[in-house]
Structures are given as structure tokens and as C-alpha cells.
Amino acid sequence: MRFIAEDAIPRLLEHLAGGGRTVWAPRVARDSVNTVLFAPWIAGEPVETGAYTHLSAKATLLPPTERLFGFSYLQTAGEERIELEPEEPEENHVLFGARVCDARALAALDALFFPAGGGFNDPGYAGRRSGLTVITLACTTCDSACFCSSFGKGPAETDGSDLILYPVANGFLAEPVTDAGSELVRLDLFQDSPLDKPELAVTDRIETAGLREKFIDLFSDIDLWRQVSEKCLSCGFCAYACPACHCFNIFDEMSGDREGERCRSWDSCMFYSYTLETSGHNPRPEIAHRYRNRIGHKFSYFPANRGEILCTGCGRCIRGCPAGVDIREVIRAVQER
Amino acid sequence: MNTIPKSGINARMPLLPEKASITRVIQETPTVRTYRLVFDDPEMMAAFSFEPGQIGQMSILGAGESTFAISSPPSQKDYIQFSVMKTGVVTTAIHELSAGDRVAVRAPMGRPFPVSAWKGKDIVIAGGGIGMAPLRSLLMHLLDRRGDFGRIQAVYGARTPADLCFAGEREEWERRDDVEFIATVDSGHADWSGRVGVVPGVVESMSPPAANTVAVTCGPPVMIKYTLESLEKLGFAEDQIFTTLERRMKCGVGLCGRCNVGAKYVCTDGPVFSLRDLRALPDEL
Amino acid sequence: MSMNDLIATIKKVLEEVDVVLGWTRSPAAGVAVPARFHTPDEADGAIFDSTCTHNLAVHLPRLKNSKVGIVAKGCDARSIVQLIVEGEVSRDRIRVIGVPCPGVIDVKRAWRCFGFGKKIEDAGGRVHMEGRSMPREEILLHKCHQCQDQEPVIMDLAAGDVKSVTPPPPPDKTGIRERFAAMSIAERREFWREQFSRCIRCYACREACPLCFCRDACSMQTREPHWTGGQVNAIESEMAQQVRTSHLAGRCTGCEECERACPVGIPLMLLLEEQNRIVEELFAYRAGMSLEDKTPLLTYDVNRDGGWR
Questions:
Q1: A240 to C263: CB separation less than 8 angstroms, yes or no
Q2: Smallest CA–CA distance from C229 into chain B, residue
Q3: CA-to-CA distance for B111 and B124, rounded, in angstroms?
Q4: In this predicted structure, what is the pLDDT of residue C175?
Q5: A222 touches chain B (CB under 8 A)
Q6: CA distance B6 to B48
Q7: What ipTM was estimated for this complex?
Q8: How far apart, in whole angstroms, are the C-alpha atoms of residue A306 and residue A105?
Q9: Is the peptide bond before C170 cis (omega within 30 degrees of 0)?
Q10: In CATH, what number is assigned to the domain containing residue B97?
Q11: B38-49 tens-digit pLDDT
């Protein structure tokens, strides 16, 4: 296998950033109580190869706010007309330091925004996705919120990654998954190594077998949903931290009287306003209804429609929930019902 | 996988609307106005096709985008029509528009009424309030192909005479002898000589035979609820009854997530559902 | 206070209410998480320790149709009083169980420094984690230092001796507050611009705040009024937060829940503490101290005060 020394990582990042590419990497934000986030790498700044990020890497593909197009109202010869300027997505990003749980989520997002079999293509997502290289850090340790072993090959999953780096003494073993990965390990930053891949973490597990149908059976059990969501404050954190949650809002913002932009932003089904209709009717008025939808979308609806579970066991929603909600406890309560 | 028939949506950029202009505004009721519009691109206008029941998104750039049923029939090639009730931010802004104003449109979206499967059948239409909009499109389409169908009965109700839309069309439907059309109001008025009574009651009084008949209803939730009961009382089976669902929508193409009822998306799997499909959905309307 | 005292008190209160809001231990995280106790059996899981950071008062307005018991630290009790003063909670449908609080640990900071779910041990004036230990005042929430509110201002029953606790001393190390105080106005602008560039508009700050009662019609999120843009960027996020902060003038009890809830670690309390200081200076008023108080900015009377000029 190929090996890259820890102190060669900055040079790898420099190489990746060549040609004006944006390299997203885990970094500690300043004055942030040690918040680790994926952010565009800046030469000379340290990257965190040992910590988990508190938000997923999805902003690389689905920015928190994306301009869909600009518009302007023009007056010509006394007549008003409008101009639309569609946004061209920037391409060629590199995601460095994703975890298996981040990379794996790309399959779910691809199934919706960039479906292989046709259907609606999301130009922003598709543009960024087709130019994306994913370099994943394998996990030899985990914490008590991790539960990716519940899904597929767990920490050994290779889907979604181009290159996987396995932490070993003083550096990383590098295993290419795609041609893009193979090309990278040919760089002379990498050397051959006789080392074997390290043992990977074994995380907590939830049982997802049968969940798709079980959820439908329990849909009307409102007492269950009230009970599992009683701590929930109905903020959007879990959706925003999640690598697979992708629902969005669309809105216009003006700058001045004559021009503006149509944007989309992350949205969360946990917000009351998400499904609120102008008549005042809300099909999901209670937190329990909204939490039920969150679970249903992840473990029942999306699997039925697109064949992918919208959860990769990254544990971010558990680590960061201000109310201490643990999605594993919810799934276990559902499975035990 | 969701597929959308006959898409006029820009497949490469489904969230990018087409520029359009208002050609005419009709004040239907104190709170409903009908907007006729044309795409600014004549090629787009010529190529535009849809089927009754499909929906569109109309925006005022700067105010936002809102979902409406297309209320014109497919045969109407000169304009596309939306009937808009003033309720929220975007619809209030739309109500400020007049002929010549510039808007943007994404259409058509969603699954239409399966009209081609209804050939040779009798049809019952029951609409209420602004819910008549998609049924206007449907009824005009059926009348365009009058020979394809048997008896056509239609009821359109509103709370008061002033709340009834489509005055001109109603007059024509009342006059024609190839459609049995009844306009009704929940409560009458001195100068109202028509029917007084709620839509489900009028449907029952018409007692359409269920055999070889399809019923289509759209309107306020409570009207739909009782109309479905009336139709079932008349012997209509779940797969003979169709309705359209409304849900808060944004993208209209099954991406943004919010209009789901269970695993179904109203924007792409609907808005038209048979009662059988509807009853298979989780109870979250 | 023993856990048995607490459990016995909750069971007693359960005789006259539908549910008691308290804490239990999370199996995964090892720390306290909010819990609802409906039955004496459930109440056996109740705990109180220095990881009981959450302000449970946030749930009271959401339980409008129940009689509710609530376990409250001194600071939480101020939020309850403010909710009653503002008419969001009715005094006669709640029972407050006061607990002696020695100051609570900043669990988020502890985890972000030592790893999620690592065992936190608070003993002998020190907090032990992952084989390391530090004086507890270095890892407490800021509000706990020199806390003036340990004895709950509203209380129906006490679990333990609420007068027995002494406020923790201030930390030795200078933190962000001292650095912020020393910044010029231009540096502060720059500081906030950078801080809010991380904001993701998840509104955890708002949802965790017991006094942010607009919730579903919040100006940070609605288009009516359209005071802030929906774009997630530093300018709009800061504006949204400034509006929220202003709306809490004379109402914020300093419970620190917004900052604790913030998943990206924005020090929101710098804004609220400064505003609370100004309110105290101008009106000699601290929110949530008495059921008879009226919030200063809610005392304007168009007849008495001469109307808008």
C-alpha cells in the first residue's frame, strides 16, 4: 500500500488546491469553543485530522444558501422587461478529511439530485458533484454517538470516496477507490509501505431491518411519536448537521428596487413553518408530527422512493442536540413497539 | 422513481422559470383574480402543452413563487390561466398586478387527471370555491372532446353568490345542453335565483348512477370530505373518485421535500389522486 | 441533596400534576438529559447533578393544557417567573421543585475539548475527564460564577436545602469576555462578522430560549415582517440575532441556553449580557425576579407617557 507522512499532508493539500480548486477540510473555527467545521482550506492553516466535525460535509455540495439566479427589472423605451441570470455552479472541489459517514451520504444525495437514471437534475449539485474529489479519513476510533456500523460495511465502507486514508503511526496508508484516487497516490508525496491496514472502529448499532414497513404500521401511533419527541425543541440543528438531510427552501431577496436574487437555503422539517399553508392550516402542527416525518423520510419514505436510507450513523445530531435527543433511542423505541 | 409527464419544465435547470407577461386580469370575486399570461418566448408558448389537473408555479420576482392549478384548458393555446386567491405574501403581491406586468412561470408540474382512461364514461364534477380552478380546465377539456364521454354533470358551489368564480363560463355551461351544470351557494341572496345548498347535497340530489361513471371533486377540505361521503353513498368505488391535493410547495419537482404525504410527493406523485391512492396515504392531510 | 429526596419530592408533586419536567441520565452520553415523568415508576429515573444544564422552563408554554411540575435550578426559576409575568404560563397550573445547585458544567465545551460522551466526574471541587482534572470553576457555565440566584425565586417544594449552596468563584483564566471587552468598536464588528459567518440559521438559540415566545412567527424566519433576508450569511445572520437580542431587552434572565444550544459555538451571551447590564443600569431591573414586577419595556402607556412623538 501507499503511505503518506503526516507532515506531508500540507503539501498534499497544496497540490489539491492547485488550479484554483477549493479544498474543504476540517478546521477549528476561531473563538468557537472548539467547533470543528469543514471550511475552505487556507495555505498555512492547520487541518484537524483527528477530530470529528460538528456539521457534515454536505455544504460542499449543497451550500447553506445557494443563489439560483439573479434577476433584474429593466426599462427600455418605456417598457419594462425582466432579465434572468442563471448561476453557473463552480466546479472542481476537493473534500479532504471526510469520514466514511460523510462519503456514504453522497450516494443518498446523488440518488435525488444527480440520478444516474435520469429525472430532474439539480444543476448546482450536479455541477459541484461531478467535479468533486473525496479524500476520506478512515476511523480507527469512534465515540459513543457513532453508529455507522449499523449500515453496510460500516467504518470499512468505500462508497463515495475516491481515496481513503487510514491513520497509522506518523501518517496514513492510502487506498485508492477510484481512478482519481489512483492518480493521487502516484504522486511522490506517497511512498510504498509494507504496513497493513489498521483495525477499524466498531461502533454502536441500530437495527434497520424491517424499519420501512414498521414505520408505516406505527404511523398513526401518535402517543409513540409524542413520547419519542418530548424532549425535542423543534430547532433545525439535526437536519442542518446531517450529511443526508437535504430539504430546502426557495425565496427571493431584493437588493434595491430593481434587482434581486432567487435563493435556496437549507430548511428543516422540524420547523413549524415548513409545512404551514397560507390558509393557516398546518398538516404537521405538533413537534411529534414533524419528528415523525423526520424519521419517516430517513428510514421509510426515501428508502421506498430512492433505495437509500437517509442516515449514515455519523452521530452528529446526537452530539449536538441542545435537548439531548438521541435518534438511536427513537429507532429502538420504534423497533420495540 | 417519480416521472413527470410532458414536462415543460427546463429539465436541465428545473428551478429556473420562464419569463412571462400578464395579458389580462379578471376580477372573479372580491378575493379571487384570474390571470392570463403568455410566455415571452414565442417558441416556448407554441410548444407549451399540459393536461388538466397539472399545476404551475407563478412568481413575481422579488416577492416569490406560489403554486396554482392551471385553470385554462389544453386547447387554449393563446394563454395560460391561473386563478389566484389573495391569502399570503406572494398572492397579495400577485393581486397588485395588471395587464402588461412581467412575471415568471414554471409549468406544467405534477400528474394530471387520467382523462384518456375515462373515454366512454359518464363524468361527475363537484367543485367548491377556488377549487373549481383545475375543474374549469377539466370541464372545458371534456367539452372540447365531448364525443369521447357519456353524460357530464357538474356542480360548482361557493359560500355566497359573490364568491362564485367564472361568471362567463358558468353562463355558457348553463346554456349548453350537453352538460348538466348547477351552480349553488351555501346561503342565498336577494338577487340569487339559483340553487341554494352545499355541494355534496346537490351532488346527491342529482343522483348520478355510479356504474361506468367517474367523479372528480376539488374544493375546501370540508367540502371534499362530505362530497366523498356522498359519492360513496351513491355507490362510487374508491377508484372511480378523483381529487387534487394542495400542500405547501417550493420546488415543484420532488427535490425540496416539503409537500410529502408519507412517501408520496404532491408535486410529482399528485396533485391528482384517486380516492384509493388517497386512502393508501398516511393520515397527514 | 440526595437523589432519594428528589425522587420522593417528584412523586409527591405527581399526585397533583399530570407530568413533572426533570432530568434523567442519558445512557449514551452519561450526562443528564431532560425527561418527563408521568408516573412514580418513571420518577425513579430522576437525577440532579452538575450536568443538568438545560433550562426546562422552555417546555412550560408548550404544555399549556397540563398541570406541570418542574424541577428548577435558581436560574431556571427566574425564567419561570418571567413567563408568568408575561402571561405565558399560569402560576396555578405549575408546581416548582427547587434544587440546590452548585453550578452546572459547560458540557458542550467539556465534550468539544475531551470528546463526546466522555465521563464527567464532578468531585472535590474539581472536574475529572479522560484522566485529566481541572478546578470546576474553569469548566462551569459562565452564569454560574458568582451566581446571585441559587435560591429559586419561585418554589413550591424544595428537594434538599436550597440555601446550602455557595456561589462558585470566578475562574482564574481570562476568557473571551475579557478579550471582547478590550476590543475596539472596529475589532468588535470584525469579531461578530467572523462569528456569524458560522451561523447556519438553525434557530436552536431561539428554540432553547424560554422567553422567545414568538417561535413560529419569529422575525428571524418569517417574511411578515421581512426584516432579515433569508440568506445564510454573516450579515443576515447577525441582523437576525440582533433583532432577537433586542426583543429580549428587559426579558432575558441570562440563562445562557441560547449560547449553550448554539451548535457552532457563537458566544451569543456577549450580546445579551451587555444588554442585560444596560437594562439593569437604566431601570435597576433584572428580569424574572418577582411576580409583581413588570418588564420595563412593557410599561409604556400611551395615555400616561404622552404617545409617540
A1: yes
A2: B62
A3: 20
A4: 81
A5: no
A6: 9
A7: 0.94
A8: 13
A9: no
A10: 2.40.30.10
A11: 999 999 999 999
